[in-house]
Amino acid sequence: MPSDWWATGDDGNRLALGICSVCPVRVRCGQGDPKPHGVVRAGVAYRDSGAVAVVCPCGQPIPTRRDLGMCFTCEPRFDLPVPVAHTPQRLDTRRDEIAALLAVGGSYRSIGRKLGMAASSVRNVALRLRAAA
């Protein structure tokens, strides 16, 4: 495997941790250096200071001390615009249009086609109009 994977902060660190978890010589590997620095060894990622690195929920070790507990890739970005869902128009806002079309004898289906609605939605509004009258 590429030796860079075992240097903390490389994109291959998740694979290195996975390979280490099934390696038959994992115990011997962990007995080598008493304080490994900036590497993945025996299934554990170490920061450059020699401390055990926190692993992000995505599986990537975090090479520096980060308060968020997430790697730079998973860290939320606050400078990006948040997408906003458009809410569909409520049926009551179309009530006047539906009432006018019903008054001239339009069917639920024809009104629905004209307003881009389902016939059952037109029927529901018509029932509410009758109940309110």
Explain what the structure shows:
The protein is 34% helix and 3% strand. With 133 residues, it is mostly helical. The protein has a two-stranded antiparallel ribbon with strand order 1-2. A hairpin with a 2-residue loop joins strand 1 (40-41) and strand 2. The longest helix has 14 residues, at 119-132. It is rod-shaped. The termini are far apart. The relative contact order is 0.09. The mean pLDDT is 76.
Order of helices and strands: HHEEHHH
Shape: rod-shaped
Strand order of the largest sheet: 1-2
Number of helices: 5
Q: Report the strand count.
A: 2
Give the overall average pLDDT: 76
Percent of residues in beta strands: under 5%
Number of domain units? 2
Termini separation comes to 77 Å
Poorly predicted ranges (pLDDT <50, ≥5 residues)?
none
Radius of gyration: 31 Å
Sheet of most strands = 2 strands, antiparallel
Q: Which percent bin holds the helix content?
A: 25-40%
Helix- and strand-based class? Answer: mainly alpha
How do the helices and strands line up, and which of them pair or pack?
Elements: H1 13-21, H2 26-30, E1 40-41, E2 44-45, H3 95-103, H4 108-115, H5 119-132
Antiparallel strand pairs: 1-2
Helix pairs in contact: 3-5, 4-5
Task: Tell me briefly what this model is.
The chain has 133 residues and is mostly helical.
Can you tag this structure with a few keywords?
5 helices; rod-shaped; mainly alpha; two-stranded antiparallel ribbon
